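Q: Got a minute? One more chain.
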Amino acid sequence: MALLEIKDLTVGYDAHSVLDHLNFTVEEGDYLCIVGENGSGKSTLMKTLLHLQEPLSGEILYGDGLRANEIGYLPQQTAIQKDFPASIREVVLSGLQGGIGFRPFYSKADKETANRNMERMGILDIADQCYRDLSGGQQQRVLLARALCATQKMLLLDEPVSGLDPQVTAEMYRLIADLNKDGITILMVSHDVQAALKYATHILHVGDEVFFGTKKEYLDSKIGRIFLSEEES
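A: Always. Here it is, folded:
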């Protein structure tokens, strides 16, 4: 069974649908980029896959023992979140809360997991610094380490390079690609179609028309050619 299988899924708010009758699958090791026009429902789909909101209809099926609370999530940041007055270590540790149940403290294993993921993101040496004092790129590394604390299988990333300069953007994409090479399945919402095509194995295009398939199939499709020409113009 696929790691994630979406059957006839409709998502939206207050009975108003923004995406209708979606069908796609995500296999272990895939790198799926979700692209489309602004306001096409990409972030709404992400939240629905995480059960942060309920689907209007359809099914979300998890395979290989995956549960919704075992998916790492990096949401779009708000201005308030960027000014969060906590240490890097505290932010990263908070990614473990979905798995500790009713325990009132973090175990030694929890702290080792947080340290391992901070080291993976190159931020362990600044773990006691305040999160709000970091650059945008450093903050995204912290949030990625936090998301990794929740999962060994799948990451959902919502515009992970938004607002970052080109050099930091390239570094972030390389980090994500390395995680995928290490076996973590990636689902990423992106407005950066060129980067999506560089790194993705599969594309889900949402909007007035919907496409799901491999990167090559998308490049050969009418919807892909039209969207890419509009992005370049």
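A: The two ends are 41 Å apart (CA to CA).
Q: Perfect, thanks.
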